[in-house]
Amino acid sequence: AQTVTQSQPEMSVQEAETVTLSCTYDTSESNYYLFWYKQPPSRQMILVIRQEAYKQQNATENRFSVNFQKAAKSFSLKISDSQLGDTAMYFCAFMKRLGADKLIFGTGTRLQVFP
Amino acid sequence: DSGVTQTPKHLITATGQRVTLRCSPRSGDLSVYWYQQSLDQGLQFLIHYYNGEERAKGNILERFSAQQFPDLHSELNLSSLELGDSALYFCASSPGQGQGANTEAFFGQGTRLTVV
User: Fold this and answer.
1) Is the alpha carbon torsion for A47, B56, B96, A70 positive or negative?
2) Which residues of B touch A1 (CB under 8 A)?
3) Per-residue pLDDT tens digits for B69-102
4) How high is the mean pLDDT of chain B?
5) E-strand spans in B51-95?
6) Do A33 and A97 meet the contact criterion of CB atoms below 8 Å apart?
7) Nearest CA in chain B to A6
């Protein structure tokens, strides 16, 4: 069975600064996907970034980038130039490549961006 | 707007009752997933349908059932409701199942169920 662990329940950062959210996972699968989802107060789940495990290059989407360490089973999210609108819950999630039948989520990290 | 529509947005009902939550996937998406988000259990996968067929089950109670109709919309039925069933229920859709771009799941805004 796969598990996803987010060890930081809450984090805060000042506007324009950089913050890193941690995520570790456990799996015996060799091919899989990892995701970061954002859930703002509106409660909508929004995909922030996706990483394919067979790709060594770290994914980047504008101010969001990941540090994917496959051997260490670590998948952290870096938010650069933080904005007030980044305030939200962030969930790390895992999906196996074969079958792709479900997302397994971590418990989330609540990020507060303050002025 | 993700293109996934869930109704109703809010639902308040009494213990022992039965409710139906509805999900319309994005146009062209064949897969529908249901998730439950509660304070104590976090985000839990319930069930996955692909083109009308059940493909995977997660931690779904026997009191809960789902189906996907020929027009691809899906319904989640919750019966004999208990206080602990109070949660946010999400539907997500994706183009298919398998590899590549089909893995991106688009979420609806959820249905907030409160059992009193």
Assistant:
1) positive
2) none
3) 999 999 999 999 999 999 999 999 988 755 555 5
4) 92
5) 53-57, 64-68, 74-78, 87-94
6) yes
7) B42
The H-or-E segment that residue B5 falls in is strand B5-7
B 1-60 residues inside an 8 A Cβ radius of A: 2, 33, 35, 42-43, 45, 48, 55-56, 58
Chain B contact probe: residue of A45, A89, A97 with most B CBs at under 10 A: A45
A47, A91, A98 member nearest B43 (Cβ): A91
**Cα–Cα nearest to B35, from B23, B51, B52, B50:** B23
Which tokens sit at A39?
């859930």
Give how far B48 is from chain A: nearest CA, Å.
Answer: 7
Q: Round the average pLDDT of chain A to a whole number and report it.
A: 93
| The pair of three-digit structure tokens given for residue A34, joined into one six-digit string | 């990892």
User: Hey, what are A67's tokens?
Assistant: 């540090």
3-state helix, strand, coil in chain A (%, to 5): 5, 50, 45
Burial class (CB in 10 A: 0-12, 13-18, 19+), A103: buried
Question: If chain B, 116 residues long, is cut into consecutive pieces of 10 residues, what is the mean pLDDT of each piece?
Answer: 93 98 94 92 92 90 96 97 97 74 81 97
Q: Are B104 and B2 within 8 A, CB to CB? A: no
Q: Residue A54 class from Cβ within 10 Å (0-12 exposed, 13-18 middle, 19+ buried)? A: exposed
Tens digits of residue pLDDT in A66-108: 999 999 999 999 999 999 999 999 999 999 887 667 899 999 9
